[in-house]
Amino acid sequence: MTAFSSRRSSQPEDETAQQVTHASLDDSHRPYLTPLRPRAHCGHREMRALRKSRQDARRRKSWCLFAVLVTAFSLTLVQGQSFISPLTVLRVLWGEPVAGASFIVGELRLPRALVAVLAGGCFGLGGAAFQSLLRNPLASPDIIGISAGASAAAVFAIVMLSLSGTAVSVIAVLAALGVAGLIYALSWRNGVAGARLILVGIGLGAMLQSITAYVLTQAPSWSLQEALRWMTGSLNSVTMSQVVPLGSVFGLLGGILLLLSRNLEVLRMGDDMASGLGVRLSMTRLGIIISAVGLVACATAIAGPVAFVAFLSGPVATRLFHHQGSVLVPAAMIGALLMLVADFIGQFLLPARYPVGVVTGVLGAPFLLYLVIRENQRGASS
Fold this sequence. Notes:
Number of strands: 0
Number of helices: 16
Structural class: mainly alpha
Largest sheet: none
Strand content: under 5%
Radius of gyration: 22 Å
């Protein structure tokens, strides 16, 4: 983005072309774009001051969001059915054996909180990458069929193959990657257009949901409950042994996405602009899609297809960090925060205990309706 801005500022004679390019953009793309010339009459000094102001604002917001996330994580370790003092929690984390607290914090609360943060981060990062790449807030993996593919495969493995645990997780990951590859292949026609990929994904998602429903009708009662629990999305059975693999995937694929974030920012401006700036469109898209699908698939394999976390994180981050650069890292933090808060609400703040997917579904459904209505209004006014 910086390179792009400096190249533009060194070619003032292209101002007309730049205005034409911005005029050609649809209103729905503008919230994802960082404006290159906020004011036509700004000089170089004003531009630098404006850029520094935005960087300072982004840094402040990022630290505030991180502080809220750390606070929520700490509260989930301290407060549950019983209160354990922060000092005792620190002693347990330090490795000191404490009667009672070592099991409650070390074996129950800590793995649950860590998986919530990592899975939420994976969902948020993958969802924001898809939405930015396709320039559409509705283009979340759980909307375009990738989570539906993982769910269908997992339900088939539980009901028809009588599998459980790691085997189900591996099958879910492979199925999600396979569905993403199928969507990409069916969308290909001299390149992949965002609208075509979304429509193909929605169609495949509907087919996979039908398969899931059919398999459930054939399920015996003992496996039906397990399949429904997995489909809802839950952190009830997570253990510390799942933290390291999920953390490794988050670090590896998240790092790749961050390396590609500059090209992703350029892709938001359209294929012609990105191609003109030297971005290899197909390779960049493929790398972003594989990384994002891998993140969502691995989080789904461990926590189940938790509804709306991938869908909500990107738009919320875009609203908080409007015109302040890439939203990938903020979206990851927001996804982690959503998982932590929703799981805590489902466990302790409702009359009965509910899986985290139930709470995120209740929170996300109104937001989905709001986005659909807003997109319809934009379409009607354009």
